[in-house]
Write a structure and sequence with these properties.
Strand order of the largest sheet: 1-5-4
Number of domains: 2
Strand content: 15-25%
Number of helices: 4
Low-confidence stretches: none
CATH topology of the largest domain: TATA-Binding Protein
Distance between the termini: 51 Å
Number of strands: 9
Order of helices and strands: EHEEEEHEEHEHE
Structural class: alpha+beta
Mean pLDDT: 94
């Protein structure tokens, strides 16, 4: 069942799907309509799932699930993944490429580059420990508010910092 994103608790489980490109208005509208329909019918073992989504910065699709009502199962997560793959094909976009790193550049604009280029930029000093990164590995809505857009040293990205 689809619920308003704001009504879900901070402990709602989330999945973040990052587009490698900015999503134009028409694509955001299409994604929103398709996601609303998908989440309205999303179930696990025949039980309705209390779910929602938001699209942030026209680049990040965040799907949230209140697991207090009923938890996601392997099959229901597979259905979500297959739905996202179908969106990728339908709209000619990339949402599942985990090799792309999102961060804010010196002008606070969102950049997305391959992880190898990100590591090279770190080693070259073009990006540093104070760079704002998007930690798409967070697990719940509360972390989305507090820990998603954070300095590199507070994220898993810190493992790539050069040793001084």
């Amino acid at each position: 069942m689809y619920f308003s994103f704001e009504t879900l608790n901070d402990d709602a489980r989330i999945w973040i799907f990052q587009s490698t490109n900015f999503l134009e208005f028409e694509k955001v509208e299409r994604i929103s309509a398709r996601l609303m329909n998908f989440l309205h019918d999303w179930r696990a073992h025949g039980k309705d799932l209390m779910a929602s989504f938001t699209i942030i910065h026209d680049r990040f699709i965040v799907v949230a699930l209140d697991e207090a009502s009923y938890q996601a199962t392997g099959c229901s997560i597979d259905k979500l993944t297959h739905f996202i793959q179908a969106l990728e094909k339908e709209l000619a976009i990339s949402l599942l490429d985990r090799t792309q790193i999102a961060f804010r550049d010196e002008n606070q604009l969102i950049e997305i580059i391959h992880m190898m280029d990100f590591r090279a930029a770190l080693e070259a000093g073009e990006i540093d420990e104070d760079t704002i990164v998007f930690n798409n590995l967070i697990e719940n809505k509360g972390q989305l508010k507090r820990q998603w857009e954070t300095v590199l040293t507070n994220s898993w990205h810190k493992q790539w910092l050069p040793i001084a």
